[in-house]
Amino acid sequence: MTIGHPSPRTPRPLRRRPMLRPMSQLPNLVTLSSLACGLTAIRFAMSTGSTLTHRVALVLGLMFAAAVLDGLDGRLARLLDAQSPMGAQLDSLCDAINFGVAPALITYVLVASTPSGPLLTSWAWLAAMIYAGAIVLRLGRFNVLHETPETYPFDPEFFVGVPAPAAAWLALVPVVLVQEFGDGWWSHAITSSAWLVVVAILAYSRLPTFTFKTTRLPQSAIPLVLLACFVVLAALFTFPYLTILALLAVYVAHIPFAVRQRRFLISHPAVWTVPKAERRALRRDRRREGRQSRKRQRPVLGRVARLRHLRRKQ
């Protein structure tokens, strides 16, 4: 038996990794910059080198920068055509820290853990953990719902629950109140902790809230919108904390309208494919018809006149 030489192996073709454009990583850089702002806000909240007023101003400014950068990274990715699964996961992880961990720690350090008994401090820490856990669960549910097919064609018009950036600013309401009005019942450990739990419930709930991403403005409304934005910016520079509280109050007040709008859309499949402007006109017409039908059903005579009429019949 002859031993032959081993057959030479055929060389494998070299697989070249796809070359990435440098500009395609710009959205990820913006996301990481947002994370840096959130972590730095936690640092300033825990530091003791400056006055409380100065620290709170820096913390709120950094949280505002984190929210702005979080809103820019997705739009920048779509503009540069640089959307990727890694970018989506990176954005979700950074949101969990910026809008889940950071607001919980900031509210706990600056307000909820004020000098009180150990029981109240433990309750405040429990509320902070509940809020952070609710935001993480909400983001996980958002990722799952984002990959599943939509139930209704109008689903892109609504968020499921309060989104994480809005929930973060709602969680910071006790901090803003202390900065504007000083200590009060809103700065108590029980009140601020209960508020964190309420915001956590709103974030993880299935209440619909408007996204405002699919809203298209007519050309005639653009000057009014620009004027409203200018007024809000001027108010932010003049009365920053009162303006933040007013904007948050308006946001919370819109939730019942969003619930009503979604219920109307679910019960009226004929308007699913109708543009929003025509949809509002249809709702006005239906309300007008409902008022007219109720007027027809009302008795013509008043109560006293109706009793006299019945007595005469008897």
What does this structure look like?
The protein has 314 residues and is mainly α. Among the domains are: 176 residues, no CATH class; 41 residues. The chain has a two-stranded antiparallel sheet with strand order 1-2. The radius of gyration is 28 Å and the shape is globular. The termini are far apart. Helix content is 70%, strand content 2%. The chain has 11 helices and 2 strands.
Short description:
70% of the residues lie in helices and 2% in strands. It has helices at 26-46, 52-80, 85-112, 118-147, 164-171, 173-181, 189-204, 222-238, 240-267, 276-297, 303-313; strands spanning 158-160, 208-210.
Q: Segments where pLDDT lies below 50 for 5+ residues?
A: none
Number of DSSP helices?
11
Spatially, the strands of the biggest sheet line up as 1-2
Cα radius of gyration in angstroms: 28 Å
Sum up the overall morphology in one term.
globular
How many strands in all? 2
Instruction: Summarize the helix and strand pattern as letters.
Output: HHHHEHHHEHHHH
Largest sheet: 2 strands, antiparallel
**Overall helicity:** 55-70%
End-to-end distance = 128 Å
- Secondary structural class: mainly alpha
Proportion in β-strands: under 5%
Mean pLDDT: 81
